[in-house]
Amino acid sequence: MQVPLGDTLQASPGVPEAPDLYQQTVARVGALRDMAAGLARSGGDLIGKITGAFDQAARDHRDQLILARELQNSPVSHEIRAYGQELEDQMLTPEKVAEGFAGPGSIASKPVLLGLRAGELSPTGSHFATRGSSTYFDLGNPDVGRYNLAKVNILDTSNPQEALPVLKDVAKHPLVQGMKGNDPMGVRDMLATALRDARVGQNPVVDYLGGGVAPFPEVAKKHGFGGYKFWENDDIADPSTVFAWDLNKVVPHGAVAKQTMQDFKKAP
Fold first, then answer.
1. Which of 155, 181, 184, 182 is nearest to 170 (CA)?
2. 184 and 124 within one domain
């Protein structure tokens, strides 16, 4: 979809005209385009850098829409154009009102958290791949469903302040206590290390093995969370896998995800 930058203001009805904001946005788009061109020549982490610039520049949903559509017009590479389309698919545009993206109680003040999942949803919770280094986050796979997880209160197990109370209760859980002398997955050692790191303000590591065996969903739910994020086996800088059980707050996008969500809600 090719949308001229000047026409984008009319794409957001109900938003007051703000010429100064528009000119600022045009300037940011130009800077973003220049940066993208430079990255393409240098072979840098194109999508990662654009994501950072996008997060910094997008001050409201109209800015986000302008930037997403300008990326789609980029002459630099197909990768940038495809990513621009992906961003617009997740934008907080008026067209998304019916899906909870705008209006009172919406996620308009939060960033989009795109999660990919292949297969059906489970009433006890489902795994989603979010953007990171893991190969599970595969935007090129047409068979995966795309979901926005931003409304789910997700525990970031790598955040020491956020994770410490949950880690303490997980370590005291009868299931974990019962692993003494019979812990082939090393769950107790993983939890002990994570607790030690969190207590001194360092980022704890909850991996996909320990996170899948230890009772994190049960404990995190008692702390008010609707899901938790942990390290996948091929994550490098940050954890990227989310296990969410508060699926009523997960918003589907695209035909695959919407059909999957419909099937899930119809299931007995």
1. 155
2. yes
Q: Are residues 127 and 61 in the same domain?
A: no
Q: In a 3-state reduction of DSSP, which class is residue 173? A: coil
Could you report the per-residue pLDDT of 221-239, keeping only the tens digit for each?
Answer: 999 999 999 999 888 878 8
**Looking at this protein, which amino acid is placed at residue 238?**
D
Residue 92 domain-assigned (yes or no): yes
Q: Kind and range of the H or E element at 41?
A: helix 19-42
Confidence grade of residue 114 (pLDDT, cut at 50, 70, 90)? confident
**Could you tell me the pTM of the whole model?**
0.62
Residue 103 lies in a domain: no
Q: DSSP E strands: which ranges in the chain?
A: 114-117, 126-130, 145-148, 154-156, 227-230, 241-244, 251-253
- If we measure between CA atoms, which residue out of 127, 135, 158 comes closest to residue 239? 158
Cα–Cα distances in Å, from 234 out to 47, 136, 196? 18, 9, 23
Quick one: which of 39, 115, 107, 129 has its CA closest to 76?
Answer: 39
Q: Count CA atoms closer than 13 A to 74's CA, side-chain side.
A: 31
Closest CA to 89 of 147, 135, 128, 134: 147
DSSP letter (8 states) at residue 7? G
Does 17 lie in the same domain as 128? no
What letters, b where the CB count within 10 A reaches 16 and e where it falls short, cover 110-139? Answer: eebbbbbbeeebeeebbbbbbbbebebbee
Among 69, 96, 123, residue at a domain's last position? 96
**Residue 106 domain-assigned (yes or no):** no
